[in-house]
Amino acid sequence: MSAVPHDRKVEPLVTIGMPVYNGETHLAEALKSVLGQTYTNLEVVICDNASDDRTPEISRHFAEADPRIRYLRNPTNIGLLPNFLRVRDEARGKYFGWLDHDDLLSDPAYLGKVVAHLERNGDIALCDTWIRFVTEEDDQAPRVIEFPELHPERHWPESRRDLFCWPHDWLEMTCHGIFRRAHLSEIPIPERTRTGRPHVFNWEIDVLTSVACRARIAVLPEALRTYRSSASSTARQMGRSVSPFDVLLLDLETKLTLLLRALGASGGAADRLRLAGAALGNFTRNTFRRRFDYRFEVREAERELKALRRASGERAELLDFLHHEIQARRKLVAAGGDEIPPVGPPSHMGADPGEAPLPPGDRKPSTTPWARFFRPPSAELVRWFGGVAGQLEDWRRRCEVQLEKIRAAEGEAASLLAQLEARASMQPSDLA
Question: Which of 9, 296, 374, 432 shows a CA-CA span of 20 to 30 A to 32?
Fold first, then answer.
């Protein structure tokens, strides 16, 4: 890694803030994605939340090589949200964006395009792009998450109203775009608690709606950054520490906050009434089974695992049928004197993840449903889900390999059938 000439006395236009805790696995990749941007008038502020892995070593290595990087370290872990706020407060740029240590600015043009749009449109406080979504287990198969609600050409009152309709699947992720720091700094982001402990549930939508009460938000229709979903993320870990009852109260708190914020939004009375109407509609929506309800996530994983096993069995039967059909057609072709390759083993043979039973857990706990409603997920359930997650990846790969073999077998069977049909259509004189 070569050093990049840069004068620390020159104020950067953009600050990328990276709050990190034990991020050694992906931190270097994330930093390289920032330093590889075609837009170079930037600084990176890393705030290490007392990591006990190689995060300090990696951070110092990059900071020594590139003066645009500042490395800060908390002597003790101050919590997720305070660490996010510290990198914001340490920023010097006119524009500011958070980047988690396991995410990427995957397109080198990301910052250039976003900053150019902000420079051209002074009424926009936050700009982002579509994202590529990958899982930690399979980061080679991204899917694109689009945000049509916040398209730059869409009528802003309609976009703003959609932000107050909650919950939505992905809009919160735009909170990791690029802000005008002046707007973001004037927004209070209080740390909330539940059962005596701080939490960060729904904090992104809290920030987004606060910004939307003051200025516009826009998302450019290109997938230029990557979000990686990790089972070890802090938010997912917090989801394991709350009960369904806690989730219900947290959701009600968010709905009430959105309603009060809508009533105090900028604009005329008609605009505020429309926002309040959207926020009131949230109370009619079932938000109980959301991504922070860990038991719901476990049930979904179990259903997917059973479906994958069933699909794999059906594909194995189809491969057996295709194998026997290919053998029969090869014999017919061979009877005509044509050269054909030897018959191989059945097409579905190969690596098999096995038929191991589902990992043990508390899917049938001895406690009553009413008691489980008020208790966080048990340690047994968390361990069971970890086993299921590993099996899911094995069975997904198995099904993908089987599908490829089915396509190859169907192609071979079609080719043999074409040879037989061609011979059947030939005249007797052609056969002589």
Answer: 9
Helix (H) / strand (E) element for 314: namely: helix 294-335
Q: How far is 159 from 36, CA to CA, in rounded Å?
A: 32
Question: Amino acid identity, residue 58?
Answer: I
CB contact at 8 A, 17 and 42: no
Beta-carbon count within 10 A of 187 CB: 17
Residue with tokens 């074409």: 418
Establish whether the linkage from the previous residue to 167 is cis, with ω within 30° of 0.
yes
Of the candidates 45, 32, 46, 41, which has an alpha carbon nearest to the alpha carbon of residue 14? Answer: 41
Give the separation between CA 63 and CA 241, rounded to whole angstroms.
Answer: 36
What is the 8-class DSSP label of residue 208?
H
pLDDT surpassing 80 at residue 389: no
Please write the tens of the pLDDT for every residue from 54-86. 999 999 999 999 999 999 999 999 988 999 999
The angle that helices 203-212 and 156-163 make with each other, rounded to 10 degrees, is: 150
DSSP3 helix / strand / coil % (the chain, rounded to 5): 50, 15, 35
Helix (H, G, I), strand (E, B) or coil at 351: coil
CB 289, CB 296: distance < 8 Å: yes
Tens digits of residue pLDDT in 269-284: 888 999 999 999 999 8
